[in-house]
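Hello support,

Our group uses your service weekly, and this is the first time we've seen a run hang past the timeout. The protein is Tetratricopeptide repeat protein. I'm not sure whether the cause is the sequence or the server load. Input pasted verbatim:
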Amino acid sequence: MPPHAEKVYFEYLLAYEAELSERWGDALTHYSNALAADPGSLHLRTQVVNMLIKLGKIPEASSMLEELTARNPSYIPALMLLGELYNSQKKVDEAIAVYKKVILIDSARNDARLLMGMLFSSKGDLQSALGVFEEVLKKDPDNVMALYYAGTISLERKEHAKADTLFKRIVELRPTFDAAYLNLGLSHEMRGEVKSAEEYYRKALEINPANAFARERLVQMFIAGKSYDKAIKELESVLEDIPDHHETRQRLGLLYLQERNFGKAASEFKILLEAKPGDITARYYLVLALEELGKIEEAVGELKRIVSLDPKNLNAFYNLGYIYTKQNRYADAAKIYEEVLSFEKGKPEVYVYLGTSYLQIKEYKKAEEVFRQGLKRFDVSDDLHFNMAILYEKTGKFDEMVAELKRAIELNPKNADALNYLGYSYADRGMHLPEALSLINRALELKPDSGYIIDSLGWAYFKLNRLDDALNNLLRALKYVQDDPVVHEHLGDVYAAMGRYDKALDAWQEALKYHEKEEGIKPRVEEKIRKLEVGSPR
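Update from on-call engineer: The timeout came from a worker crash unrelated to the input. Re-ran successfully.
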């Protein structure tokens, strides 16, 4: 035995043991010691380079490896390592050139061909990649990896029949190769063959329950097909295995919302928030579920938590204001929008929301001031002009109201509410009746199912003394807004004009049932009933 052989062997064993334990620094030291004792060993020099790569000393490894391959151009282990190094540095063309050298030296090196094919594929040269994989298959028809890569390229090129053949050959050779079943599922899904795709995805999951991509494809496929119950089952299955998978829990909660299963949706978002209390999006979804469940105070509490986490969260403020408005807590809604306006003056809807809240509590001066502030910034906002018109109507400024409504319609000829409001205002005063009828009909074209606009149309016909048309439209309006006192009042007026006094009385009494919805209607209707009862024939 040469005098240095014992030391080389000893250091090599120490290096190998360190490498197995992933102690790369120790391995490098021992391989270097062995190489010092046997400087002519290509294997030891290659191992030193390998440890330099493991330690991230890439420039040193590159220099040493390029020198090694230059002096020993036929030493395949070094060339293979150089190809790997170039690949890690994104030097794709250089890596391909190295693997070509390897194949010229040893044409049986299908491992080099596979790596080269993958590199061609990575740079988008699918034709060259496919050619390389097919070359491998000529030499080794049952090479599973070559079959797989050729199949994925065929799939990408939408050559589905060819892809199916390749993947089916894989599962014949290796029945537990879940990725092959996954790709068969993709191939069938791309062709719209949902049932077959589902079968292949389920086979992939049967082999490998942790195949997240197969599960994801099933979920996406079910959602696309609106089979939300199936998508929910898949996500529930994921959570059984991985209960702390937050993204899945959020998606499940959203699907529950989609399916209007608000109780389960709320439950999922609450669990998620226990783990991620700062997740504003999840908390907002919880609010939506709570609102649908009628748990309004709990929803308000969650919205306030969102505001405490994000003091400028517009959605939270808007939702709070909306809830207070639905509860007729207009003063509280106004406070919310006042706070929004303190930090957000660049959105016209803020002025609309605040101004309309003031209107509800009859703070007309404040409302006008807010609308004027808004119009200084957003004179092209038809909503602001429309709401300013409502203010003028409430404060008895008819001409100003008409001007604002006309401006709103000029800015947005499809503003159905402005068209209807102006048409009704004319009709109610018995003025410009042909124009009123035209305005209301334009509004109705935009909102054909609006009971309020149909009521306006009936009222315009009443003012034109077209009583049959008035009656027909008011009865139609009641199909959409059965609890609106004004529609019932109008119907009573039409019946009275037609001499059908019993019907008129019934309609007016029906209006009184809902009088709280319209300020001032109760004494007006009661007076009509009184006059009918004491003076009109029946």
